[in-house]
Amino acid sequence: MKKKKKKIPMEESPIRKFHVKMATLTFGAHFTDGYVIGIISFALLALGKVWDLTPFELGLLGSSVLIGLFFGSFLLGWASDYIGRQKIFLFSFILITLASFLQLFAPNVWILFILRFFIGFGLGGDYTVGQAMLAEFSPKKYRGSLLGSFNVFFTVGYVVSSLIGMFLLDAGVAWNWMLASSTIPAITVLLLRIGTPESPKYLMSQGEEEKAQEIVKENLGEHVYIPHEKQTKNLGMKHLFGKKYIKRTIFNGTFYACIVLPYFSVFTFLPTILSYFDMQEGHTADIVLNLFLLLGAFLGTYLTVKLSRRGFLISSFVICFVSLALLGIIPQSFSILLIIAFVVYTIFISAINNLVGIYPAESFPTELRASGVGVATACSRIGSALGTFLLPIMITRLGLSPTMLILSGVLLLGTIVSITLAPETKGKKLA
């Protein structure tokens, strides 16, 4: 007689093929995001020769996706708490795929800006919903490593786009074909997402327990169940800024912004910055730093498992602050020290990025999770968009060293906020 398997709650389930599938579909969005942001660096080099772009227009196009991410994460994250995760999960990549392809025909700066804004809008919504869905499906034991892996795939997408961008730029390929190449990863993710189920935790919060249990059994096994949860009211955005959640909202929005602002500012205009340091010899420096970004992403995944969330966050902020401040202080003649500081910054700003996929998703309850992740992502993207927009202007007017010191000040702010407000969420059950 076959022994009946013991019933286990969804959060205690071992990793199944379904978890791998959901993770892959969510990681695909981050790969696409990295690709979209990375390819613009090389497209702008080609585009600048055709359209004679001003520093303002360079900053506008460089920050276009990030501006879209701000609005998309805020609005689509809020919407998914009302209409469900799955609808936004699919819609976001329909929008990304169409806008990516239409870049091929952009006739001027403003149309290109609008198209890249819509790409960012879709990615912003997908960030919030993807993090919420993966957090809600993941077993508690593996949640940190799965959510932390977002950054690995973003970095892989960024590095792949950089290598392709170098090749296409050297081959004389037009800027619009460079940008439209993001259609390939986007449509791949879109097609694979068709048929994705709704989050069981979201359905439970809406009182649809039977449907939630059915999805869990179908995808995770007959012996797996989702514990009963009371139906919750759809909480409005105002609850994120109420007494109960205001500290979590401030912390997540601030620490996230303080990481991605200097990250995107530096790496969107990496070829320009390297030329100021006399470190640009062909594409060697770009390739080496991209490899260190990858190293940092994998290191961050390891440290996420080994260290506490709070300890990893604070120590990484300190290292990034010191290394970027040194880039603003060390004289240009001390090239070896500059290279070491840049490498250390590259590794640890990539490593700390693993936490932006974890902390927001673990900080809010189901009925506010997508909205909370959305607000945190929105804060981060308006900060990174502002930094990316202003960077070429600041370098032109202030010089590179003062600009690096300003960016290091952002990291110092992140350090202070993390010491003051960062909670420990590792290993805790999702609310």
From TrEMBL:
InterPro entries: MFS_dom (IPR020846), MFS_sugar_transport-like (IPR005828), MFS_trans_sf (IPR036259). Keywords: Membrane, Transmembrane, Transmembrane helix, Transport. Signal peptide: none annotated. It is a multi-pass membrane protein. The chain crosses the membrane at residues 20-46, 58-76, 88-105, 111-134, 146-168, 174-194, 253-275, 287-305, 312-330, 336-361, 373-395, 401-422. Residues 22-426 form the Major facilitator superfamily (MFS) profile domain. Its main location: membrane. It is found in: Cell membrane. It comes from the Bacteria. This is MFS transporter.
